[in-house]
Amino acid sequence: MYFYKEDLINIIVPDRPDPAAAKVIQETLGGQFGEMRTMMQYFFQSANFRGKDKKYRDLIRGVFIEEISHVELVQTTINELLNGSGYTEAGDAGVDGAPLDEAIKHANPHHYIMAAQSSLPVDAGGNPWNGSWVYSHGNLIADLLNNVVLESTGVLQKSRIYEMSSNKTFRETLAFLMVRDNAHQNAFAKALETLGVDWGKLFPIPNYDLNKYPECRKYVELGYHNAQFNFRLDETKIGEIFQGASPSRSQGQLQVTDPPKGFSIPELPEMPNEHSPGLKDMNS
Amino acid sequence: MYFYKEDLINIIVPDRPDPAAAKVIQETLGGQFGEMRTMMQYFFQSANFRGKDKKYRDLIRGVFIEEISHVELVQTTINELLNGSGYTEAGDAGVDGAPLDEAIKHANPHHYIMAAQSSLPVDAGGNPWNGSWVYSHGNLIADLLNNVVLESTGVLQKSRIYEMSSNKTFRETLAFLMVRDNAHQNAFAKALETLGVDWGKLFPIPNYDLNKYPECRKYVELGYHNAQFNFRLDETKIGEIFQGASPSRSQGQLQVTDPPKGFSIPELPEMPNEHSPGLKDMNS
Amino acid sequence: MYFYKEDLINIIVPDRPDPAAAKVIQETLGGQFGEMRTMMQYFFQSANFRGKDKKYRDLIRGVFIEEISHVELVQTTINELLNGSGYTEAGDAGVDGAPLDEAIKHANPHHYIMAAQSSLPVDAGGNPWNGSWVYSHGNLIADLLNNVVLESTGVLQKSRIYEMSSNKTFRETLAFLMVRDNAHQNAFAKALETLGVDWGKLFPIPNYDLNKYPECRKYVELGYHNAQFNFRLDETKIGEIFQGASPSRSQGQLQVTDPPKGFSIPELPEMPNEHSPGLKDMNS
Amino acid sequence: MYFYKEDLINIIVPDRPDPAAAKVIQETLGGQFGEMRTMMQYFFQSANFRGKDKKYRDLIRGVFIEEISHVELVQTTINELLNGSGYTEAGDAGVDGAPLDEAIKHANPHHYIMAAQSSLPVDAGGNPWNGSWVYSHGNLIADLLNNVVLESTGVLQKSRIYEMSSNKTFRETLAFLMVRDNAHQNAFAKALETLGVDWGKLFPIPNYDLNKYPECRKYVELGYHNAQFNFRLDETKIGEIFQGASPSRSQGQLQVTDPPKGFSIPELPEMPNEHSPGLKDMNS
Amino acid sequence: MYFYKEDLINIIVPDRPDPAAAKVIQETLGGQFGEMRTMMQYFFQSANFRGKDKKYRDLIRGVFIEEISHVELVQTTINELLNGSGYTEAGDAGVDGAPLDEAIKHANPHHYIMAAQSSLPVDAGGNPWNGSWVYSHGNLIADLLNNVVLESTGVLQKSRIYEMSSNKTFRETLAFLMVRDNAHQNAFAKALETLGVDWGKLFPIPNYDLNKYPECRKYVELGYHNAQFNFRLDETKIGEIFQGASPSRSQGQLQVTDPPKGFSIPELPEMPNEHSPGLKDMNS
Amino acid sequence: MYFYKEDLINIIVPDRPDPAAAKVIQETLGGQFGEMRTMMQYFFQSANFRGKDKKYRDLIRGVFIEEISHVELVQTTINELLNGSGYTEAGDAGVDGAPLDEAIKHANPHHYIMAAQSSLPVDAGGNPWNGSWVYSHGNLIADLLNNVVLESTGVLQKSRIYEMSSNKTFRETLAFLMVRDNAHQNAFAKALETLGVDWGKLFPIPNYDLNKYPECRKYVELGYHNAQFNFRLDETKIGEIFQGASPSRSQGQLQVTDPPKGFSIPELPEMPNEHSPGLKDMNS
């Protein structure tokens, strides 16, 4: 069973609205290698786990639980990027002009038509998230290798998306997730090490240096690239795998730690012109 | 942030393997009105919430957190229904015969080809779960009405799926979820009552009598149809809505309660013929 | 604007329930070459028509209007095939047993889970109808050729589906539509004749003899293979194309005629166990 | 059976070409809450209707028939918005330059590649219309509630799309449809009133004031928000539901009336450079 | 069995990067009427061929083999259009600024997120290629007619895409393919002539004059519009159909010839910022 | 450019018709981990290759070319399994009875409705092949790892499908492909070895013993699990990678060899009742 505390796993840094950035970071939420995919893939792999060697199940499940918080972080980031991008303060639904005419120029139009300027379960091209992307084939080694590919591709994509806007809200979230993807890549690579693989200098994939991303540095200093946050309220064997030397060239020791302290969720203002939430006069 | 305790929200009652039942109950997991839809819909609605009237956000989020446990319950139910449905104990991958020849006759072939006889993120027809089903339009009233339709259709479908097999594993899970759908229907209907609607005798939808389902009775006696389990580790305003008389004709008083105590997850045996988990000899 | 009279375009011949037949004839409703496709393709082609040569637009639109009635005919046929296929008269939702256990063996499970034993906008494989199938490319010649392929494939598929059950409800509808497809094939082939093509012995495609299908004969005798029913309440130039010798080897003269007199729609009984329509007690 | 008179249900107001507006108003045609969805949903609900209480079937069918005309109105609106948006009068296919280079900047490229600058069965993101969106579950109350959500969401989306361009062709069609959506919302809400619901101040959803939209006012003055146009050529029981006080706060009395008088369909010019219709020289 | 020689079937003319052109020419690669469709459709039609009249199978297969080279030509064209469109030479992943900010304005964002600035199996709207587009219905006449529609639509779309950019890389490839589509249209039209059809003045569809496209002229002078390249290493009966007078008004004699001599594939430079290929330091 | 010789890459062993086997082996043709996926993935990866280290491109392209022959082998296998599965010799389209009634019981209905009893570009569940499955992300290491997962999953699925029928046509093709998948798994694993990975005892994935499959033994004796067939008509650097000790525990030396000698393609008989090919009387 799952429990919740109303905290984000990382900070939302405020910056200007940026609908084009919101469009492309949707890949990180609802794309084939985004957080919804990692969340659901590890959910199915851990629920469908076979056999007695529970340390692998605990590892996969441990990452799964964190991914739920990642989904929430990206949803909130998109909301922040879209908030205030259309109507002016004084905008009124029936007046002349077309307050969204400019806003949708390089935006995903569904952000405005469907979602009241908030996140959607779609990718950067507007394609909806699809269950056929989940890989859970029951062979533990194939599953772990696929997870390595998934985490590697996730960070590869993020390193490209990062170049699409200098918006601070956008880059901070991407930077945090790139560091965490590194940790999760380490987790699955390490699990394969327990089965006898010696990775040599292969990791990290792609071959990036987190310290070149200014926003990443503080997370590296906190050791987040080598930490596995523990969200279990009971015992877990995750530490039997996630320990010892990192399989990445960035080195360091892997360590199971407490989660971050939690960050508050920004409050989205009402948008009467968008009928959102739509309660005005209803309560009067 | 999300936390986990390795417990199922309800019991898995053992019975014989039943791949045809596994196929149709996939609708309850990955169908358009299944638990993955409810989980993701309430996740997006609560993350995208606008305005200060947080009791509605807390209500939607409260149901969302329970739905994660529902997804896990249905995954586990499908695994139990498929377990042992193919190979014999002595079955061996290279021997003569075709141990899965009979098993796939009325089954979803992907249960055997992809999933090592376990659950998939698809519906009863084998179509993958799709993000376009999530309804989160930002107008709170429209969102709540859609949630009422979603819960009503969920229980309507379950009452039909229930008739497709007398398997006990299958029916127990369906029965538990039908009672919980009733509670969630009450939750969203009640939220609309706070906005002035008087539902008359409309609920429950469909017009069923839970007591006619033998497996449901004990859950009704426990008051599960009028309870909202609270999975929050911090404060919540859900009780400002979920209280007072039930909007259903079944009557009773709505009440926020502790979650069930939790049930253990059955261990799935290894299947060497299916190379699942595939560790044999790797560790030697 | 569109007007309606509550009549079917052909008779529904009663026979036993046949869920497997209902499953495969869905191809004729919601498949890539089914009646929903023809209806929507001709709708878009006529609405998007360019230029002054309106006899072509009137021809396409004339076929479009009839296709709406075809969709209704196939929906009703499917309903008749499914009706009574599950529960017994005395069946009751909560009793022991599983009244749908046998029904779904070779059926589309969504006919029972979603549709209360009635028609769905899907094909024989359960895939939903898809707008990308509509061909309306604006080049009249390419559009007409595609329409010839569409009608030819429609009747080719029906001649194969016909062999999948001897059910009378099923075969009567298929037979009527095969004859009408022949007429529509003639319509588009004739339109291409006005542009200079001489088809030789190419038609009909496939090279079938309608008179070998016992159910078809009466429609051939009524001249339905060479008739274009006129559903216009105002003037139409369709007769400028649909006239003269048939382009098919079956010969005869093409002629615009009045529609059939109309047939009554069978009333579907209530299904309290399916909560369909779900009004019981609501009105009391 | 269905009959046709070559008239649009509302006027097409001329204005400049606007491909970006054409792109977003596709949501109203082929989107999940657009006119193709309402048309097909009510088509299936009325064809699959069970039981003797025919006034509900007549209501659903009555709205369905009007929706066919709505689809045609939006198709024609899109054609008008795209017409003249690319080639100059003197444009010639083989000359230097790239006449469509600018046109596609904020357009749906398929409007130019597939559709000869005319409408497509897709949404604002270019996703094709999909049959899985049709809700026809056989439980009349669930169907009616879903119809309320569908009409409410339709008008909510239109009120947002309206802000995306001040083009008159675009806004006039949206305004007419917003008023009609209000009438259809009233129809389904009223049907639920006959089953005992008291809506209080819930309607309209969203909580908009039609009179703030300048183009809407004349339709409100004509009473179109409280009228149900009758397209039946035979008897109908629709008036047994659609009568009495409006369930919306806008008040007034519901009334079944004759349809609008009909408006002529603008003729689209030939586009030789687009080979549309492609007849030039063929007839010579 | 299939064999390969590392040569392109036509030249890649160098020009400036043009991501908007890359986006729209994806239709020619992965669209419903693009080269992947023709390749796979003729693959299935020839593999599934029935009966002894092998000249038709050889014709279809002959076109299929050429289409593999067409797919490769369009992939390479897209790569050339995207190459150099983002990062500057000195660009570095972690520096300030956002090197892709401008590049993605009118681009397909997946060209940058997924494909390291290279081709994807999608259409101009970003929709993935789909197997349901393949038409192989087993009736040879219907298959041939569908192939005529496919080739006609392919060239119709290319004549429209051609107008979307004056980029030389883009137009040269389109021009070559338009001439080859004409040859393939002739091939299938001629096959239908052997079955008795007299096409009159119907072809080419659309009614274009290849000589008006400057880039096409040289290919017309080489006779490519009336030639069928032979890629068979054994005997083929294709010449029994592809001979005699062209069915197009452009006239000339059809002739089976040797393939073009082959053109070298441009080398794509490494992109360290894109981690592509990602080998740097790995080999050190 | 691509060249062709009309030979299959392996033998088609005759056996009885088996439509259920045809249905499930479609996964190997059009499934997410089937031969169409491997073919298109390696096509895109080799066409989009960046940089000067051409031995990797040659390796990927070499496997791609073989995969075209694999697609043809599975198409032909499916045709053989379906051939004769419906109509009797004397079957006649118009007679009483329903010759396909039994055939479709456990079959994919589209094999009979669309494909004239032959192969389709779909998976075992009837879902069409989809371009979004192609992984070509431009990072060579991630691409190679994904290829390892793809080949491993391909053989894992085949080892499960193998158990679904004892049909000889079916098993012979599966056995040949399992051995070839092993060779391709070796190819990509070896490429990663050149980048420093030491796989230990990880391969093969899954952990199977080819010699337990009776049909596999002769291919193992021929050394097919350690051979890379060379289909290039010019030079290739594939041998710079594909050489030395196998990365699998099955051991042996990797070696580039000539392709198999080729096997004749069985001729499919005409099916007049299916109008396939549909030429009867057309040529008279």
From TrEMBL, chains A, B, C, D, E, F:
<dbReference type="Pfam" id="PF05067">
    <property type="entry name" value="Mn_catalase"/>
</dbReference>
<protein>
    <submittedName>
        <fullName>Manganese catalase family protein</fullName>
    </submittedName>
</protein>
<feature type="region of interest" description="Disordered">
    <location>
        <begin position="244"/>
        <end position="284"/>
    </location>
</feature>
<comment type="similarity">
    <text>Belongs to the manganese catalase family.</text>
</comment>
<feature type="compositionally biased region" description="Polar residues">
    <location>
        <begin position="245"/>
        <end position="256"/>
    </location>
</feature>
<dbReference type="InterPro" id="IPR039377">
    <property type="entry name" value="Mn_catalase_dom"/>
</dbReference>
<dbReference type="InterPro" id="IPR007760">
    <property type="entry name" value="Mn_catalase"/>
</dbReference>
<dbReference type="InterPro" id="IPR012347">
    <property type="entry name" value="Ferritin-like"/>
</dbReference>
<dbReference type="InterPro" id="IPR009078">
    <property type="entry name" value="Ferritin-like_SF"/>
</dbReference>
